[in-house]
Each structure stands twice: as structure tokens, then as C-alpha cells.
Amino acid sequence: MGVIGWLDANLVSIVDGVAYGLLLFTLAAGLSLVFGMMDVLNLAHGTLYLAGAYLTFLLSGGGWLGFFAAIAAGIAIGAAGGVLLTAMTQPLAGRGHLDQALLTIGVALIGAEVFLALSGGDPLPASEPAALDGSISLLGHVYPTYRLVFIGVAALLALLVYLVFERSTLGALVRAAVADREMVQALGVDTRKVLLAVFAFGAALAAVGGVLGAPIIGPAPGVDESVLVLSLVVVVVGGLGSIRGALLGALYIGQVQSLGVALIPEYAPFLLFGSMFLVLALRPRGLAPVARPA
Question: Is 289 part of a structural domain of the chain?
Fold first, then answer.
């Protein structure tokens, strides 16, 4: 089988890997911003995804109005969660990552127990809008319509996040507030509000990722833990604090997961961390690390 034949045979898995990777990006981008820029290890990040996915279950019902309501609620709840987590972790700023990890793990455990109480311990069905509940022909293969639409929406979201944080004045202000907080404060900027906004944005992005990704990875016990682990892997592979790295890392891990399950399912559980080891062996700071000041 030639390259063209192999690509055709595995086209669905490859496109699935793109969708899966872009879903991981919506999670990992916020985690990378908070950890890489603010030096806060937020292990409750997966809980925000689970909250967004649960909102899709509650509100969507197959209609556009409910789906957009879930997105709006996800933004509000995610941002509020980010503000709350900022207030909780701020007193631990000088005490290292272990204390932050213990605190946010506690929050994640509480969130998991609340979900268990609400769901009864069973996976919940979270449906896409009825208009997208179908399949289309993709180069001779049948592929779910919603996943293709999700790829387009998530790609636009990734581009927006990249432009805001890497190519705009606002992004320069955030990076300056992280690199030299005292100097930015001397210019009259309240850096606490800047960093609070970053945390709220990252948390809202995770919750919106849960809303949009629920028809792909639905609300179920343990989902918060699995997406958190995958997001941490993406952040490490891509490079701390790097939006471009988070995108490259997410697309890479998405392909590893999707093609691994399709081609060598018996070894798929080992491929994730094996691929992370391979990247870090060749590029210890990740695929696209943030440039360090000279």
C-alpha cells in the first residue's frame, strides 16, 4: 500500500485526530497560560471541562437556542470559576506548586463528587444540535457532520487565542505583567487585574471546550481526570506558556491517540507517554517554547 492508499484508508482516523487535538487545545491553552504565565498549577482544570459538558446535557436538547445558551452559561461559569480559583490560590503564591496542587485537587474531588450526585454515576447523553446530527461524505468516507463543524469552530477559536496573546497589544501587556510585574505597575497598570483576567479567560475556555466537546467526549465519571492528564501532556509537549506550542502539542497528541487506537490498539495506552518522552528527549523545552529573555 502506497502513501496515498494509506492516507485514504486512515482518513477518518486522521480527521478524528484533528478534532480530538483541537478539543485538547481548548483545554490546554488555558492551562498553559495559567501555569506558564502565572505559575499557578491548576489541577481542577478538568472539572471546568466537565461542568461545560454537563451544561450541554442540561440545556442543549438538540436545539440551537439551548446549545448557544450552554455556551453562554459555560463562559459565565468558567470565568467565575477562574476568579474563585485565583482567590483561592493567591495566598499560596509563595509556597510552591505542591500546595497549589493539593488545593486544586481538593476542588477537583469536590467537583467530581457533585457530578456523581447529579448524574447517579452514569454517563450522560450530550447531543449536538439536531441540524448537525448526521453524516456527510468526506472524500468517499462517511464522517459525522458535527465533528467537521467542530473542527472549523475550534480552528477559528485557536486562531483568535493566538492573535490575542501572541500578536496583540493586550497579549504584550500580559507577557510584560508576567515578566516584570513591578515595571508594569510603575506604568499605572494593575497587574493583579491583568493576571486575574488571564485566569478567568483560561477557565472560561476550558468550560466552553466542555460545551463544544460534549458530543465528542461527553460528561461521565472520570472524564475530568482523563482530560486533565491529556491537557498536562499537551502543555509539557508544546512548551509552558506557549499558545503555538499548545496547538502543535494538541494536534500531535490527537494524532497519536486517534491513529494509535485505530492501528495498534493493544499498545495505544503506552503511546501517549511514549510520544511525550520522544518529544522531550529531542526538545526538552517542548515543540514551541516561549523565548526566554537574554
Answer: no
How far is the C-alpha of 53 from the C-alpha of 2, rounded, in Å?
A: 40
The verdict on residue 291 lying in a domain is: no
On whether the CB atoms of residues 37 and 198 are closer than 8 A, the answer is yes
**Distance between CA 18 and CA 253 in Å, rounded?**
9
Show the cell assigned to 184: 508594569
The reply to whether 244 falls in a domain is yes
pLDDT at residue 99 greater than cutoff 70: yes
Which residues lie closer than 8 Å to 192 by C-beta, 6 or more apart? none
Q: Which residue has cell 495566598?
A: 91
Cell match 505559575: residue?
A: 39
The sign of the torsion formed by the CA atoms of 100, 106, 110, 112 equals positive
Q: Is 114 inside a domain boundary? A: yes
Mean pLDDT of all residues belonging to the chain: 88
Distance in angstroms (rounded) separating the CA atoms of residues 117 and 83: 25
Average pLDDT over residues 84-100: 84
Structural domains of the chain, count = 1
Residue 291's pLDDT is what?
64
Q: Which domain holds residue 206?
A: 3-282
The yes-or-no verdict on residue 100 having pLDDT over 70 is yes
CATH number, residue 209: 1.10.3470
